[in-house]
Amino acid sequence: MINPFLFVKEGIKVIRKTPQLLFMSIKLTLVFIPAGTVFNKFDQPLLKAASVPVEWIGVLYALAGVSGFFATRYPGWLTAGFSSVSLMHATGIMAVIELLLSAILQFLMAVRGVLSCKLEVRLP
User: Which top-rank group of organisms is this from (predicted)?
Assistant: First the structure.
C-alpha cells in the first residue's frame, strides 16, 4: 500500500523547485474560480441590462467557447508568441477587469434607472 503522505512530500519538493506552480494555483483559486462563479450567476442579467439582444448573448457564448477550445487545444500557438507567465498574468488581469466593468456597468444602469424615474415624476 502506498503512503499518501509521500505524494504530499513530493508535491512540496516540486513547489520548492518551481514556485510558479504555487502562484498559478493561488491565482486560479483567487481570481478565476470567483470570476467564473460570479459571471455565471450574473452574465445574462448583466447582458440584458446592457441592452444586448438575446440572440447576441448566444453569439457571445459561441465565440467564447470557440476561443476557449482553440486556447486549450493548441496552447503552443499562444506560448510561441508570449511567455506562459505573461499569459497567466494577462488572463488574470483580464478577468479582474471584466468583473470590474460588469459591476460598474450594473451600477451605472441602476443610477440611470433611478434618475430617469425622478425625471419622469414632475409636479404640475
Answer: Bacteria
Residue range 8-37, pLDDT digits in tens? 888 888 888 888 878 877 877 777 777 777
Question: What is the C-alpha separation between 29 and 100, in angstroms, rounded?
Answer: 18
* The C-alpha cell that represents 116 in the structure block: 430617469
**How much is the pTM?**
0.47
Contact 65, 72 (CB under 8 A): no
Which of 30, 79, 91, 72 is closest to 22 using CA atoms? 30
Rounded to whole angstroms, how far apart are CA atoms 11 and 29?
A: 18
CA atoms within 13 A on the CB side of 42: 17
